[in-house]
UniProtKB/TrEMBL annotation:
One of its GO terms (cellular component) is cytosol. GO terms for molecular function: lyase activity. It holds the Pfam family Aminotran_4. Keywords: Lyase. It comes from Nocardia mexicana. Belongs to the class-IV pyridoxal-phosphate-dependent aminotransferase family. It comes from the Bacteria. This is 4-amino-4-deoxychorismate lyase. GO terms for biological process: carboxylic acid biosynthetic process. SUPFAM superfamilies: D-aminoacid aminotransferase-like PLP-dependent enzymes.
Amino acid sequence: MVDRVLVTLDGTVRDPDEPLLCADDIGALRGDGIFETVLVRDGKPCAIELHLARLRRSAEALDLPEPDLGQWRTAVETAAKEWGTEREGQLRMILTRGRDSIASTAPAASRKPSGQAASPTAYILVVPVPERVDKARAEGISVITLSRGISVDLAPNAPWLLMGAKTLSYATNMAALRFAARMDADDVIYTSTEHRVLEGPRSTVVIQRDKQLITPPARNGVLPGITQRALYAEAEKAGWDCRYESFFTADLITADSIWLLGSVTLAARVATLDGLRMSPPDCAPEIAEMVDRGVSRAWNIADWT
Ligand SMILES: *Cc1c(COP(=O)(O)O)cnc(C)c1O
C-alpha cells in the first residue's frame, strides 16, 4: 500500500523520497505561494472543480501566472489514482512563485511587476489523512476562541493581506493550533477585534440554530470554504435556511451546534467551546451526512463564484 504519492504538474509520478525543491524556492524562502488541500475518497479527488476554481482565484490574488487548470486536473487525477481506493488520502496542490535566483536573473522584459520569472513550482502530494480526523468526525472536537487581532473592516481595504487567498504562509495558523494544544484543545476559532467570529486556522465556522445555518461572509476576511459551500448546497435542497451573516462570540454559546468544516476532516462538531460542553443536537448526523454528500457530488468549475 503506498503511503505517499508525489506528482509534478507535468503529470510525472515521482519518488517521494527524492528531493524536489531547490534551496532558493520562494515558497520555502518566504512562504510565497498558494495551496489547496483535497480529500481523496475511493480514488477520487472530492469537489476538485471547486478546488481548481479557488486555486485560480488565489493565484490571481498573489499575481502568480494563471494556472493551467486542465493540466492541474489531469495531474490531480493521476495522483488520486496512484493513491488508490483502499483508504482516504490528503492531497495537497502546491504552487509557489518558483526559484528566487531565476526570478532575479530573468530579463526584465519577461518579468511580471512582482519581479518573478514565469516558472512557478507546482506539484501534488498525497499522504494519509491525519490520525485526528476519525476522532474529530465521530466525537467532535474541543475548541478555544483566540483573537486574530484584526477588524472585519480590514479585509476589503487591505488587499495585500491576501485574506481571501489560500496562501502557504501558515506559520501563525500552526502556532495558534500549538497554543490550543497546550490548552488541551483540538482547534481554534479566530475572532476579530470587535468579537465577531471569523474562521478556524484551517476551517470554516458554521453555526446551526433550528433549521438555520449561518457562516461569516467572505468580506469579513475569511477564506470562502469549499466544504461549507458543499454543505449549503445540500442543506438548501433539504429546506434549510442557509445564510452568510456576521455574528459574535456570544452567538456561539447560544447556537444549537457549532461546526468546523474543512476539506480533509469534513464536518467536526464543536463538543467543547472554551471549556463549555455542548451536547449534540438531533440533527448532528444529518449535517454530517449533508457534508459527505455535498463533497461527493459532481461540481462544475462555474459553481465557484
Ligand atoms: C482551507 C481553509 C478553509 C476552508 O476549508 P475548505 O477546505 O475550503 O473547506 C477555511 N479557512 C482557512 C484558514 C483555510 O485554510
